Amino acid sequence: QSALTQPASVSGSPGQSITISCTGTSSDVGGYNYVSWYQQHPGRAPKLMIYEVSNRPSGVPDRFSGSKSGSTASLTISGLQAEDEADYYCSSYTSSSTWVFGGGTKLTVL
Amino acid sequence: EVQLVESGGGLVQPGGSLRLSCAASGFTFSSHWMTWVRQAPGKGLEWVANIKQDGSEEYYVDSVKGRFTISRDNAKNSLYLQMNSLRAEDTAVYYCAILRGSYGWSLDYWGQGTVVTVSS
Fold this sequence. Notes:
The structure holds 2 protein chains of 2 kinds. Chain A is mainly β. Helix content of chain A is 0%, strand content 44%. Chain A has strands at 9-12, 18-23, 35-40, 47-50, 64-69, 72-77, 86-93, 99-101, 105-109. In chain A, strands 1, 3, 4, 7, 8 and 9 form a 6-stranded mixed sheet that branches. Chain A has a 3-stranded antiparallel sheet with strand order 2-6-5, with no helix packed on it. The model of chain A has no long low-confidence stretch (mean pLDDT 96). By secondary structure, chain B is mostly beta strands. Chain B is 0% helix and 53% strand. In chain B, the strands form 2 sheets. In chain B, strands 2, 4, 5, 6, 9, 10 and 11 form a 7-stranded mixed sheet that branches. Chain B has a 4-stranded antiparallel sheet with strand order 1-3-8-7, with no helix packed on it. Classes of the chains: A mainly beta, B mainly beta. The interface between A and B is medium-sized, with 30 and 23 residues.
């Protein structure tokens, strides 16, 4: 049950695009399409942004998109806005019938 | 409106016990898997445990197996986490969340969390 690997931090200027990677193994990210992404602002509960690799819940802007290649999933945010500054976590179902999160990525909007 | 309200957190000594509750409303509680997730101070999210709709299946992260027990009372629309033999490393904000199968087994609603501090 090792945590998925995410970069500790990424940054970008308003209007730019950024991508956050999430690397696992064939027992989690690589083996299932049950990868989700969560946004968390300081002091707040996490919010679901992407589910099943690339699907957006209603209300999430289409600036947020997800993809997967092999055992690495990615979250891309295009047209960065100030309010996107937050921590982002990936999560995946695992072959042990459990779930695992990534270590989290702090997004700074310059 | 979906609401999840956690309670029961507090300060407890190492080796002690605590029972967290999560009161659910605004959705059919008995139709959904439920999950506890925790976040240690300044750290990332950690999935803790899941329970099936009827309570017949439970899954735990290795670090809490044998110490924590997840349960639910569908008649009371409530989720619980019994935490025994608590350790300093269990100090965290504990969130309950809905595990939605139709959303690719993701957590689409979260409570605001309850704080557990394990310290002497």
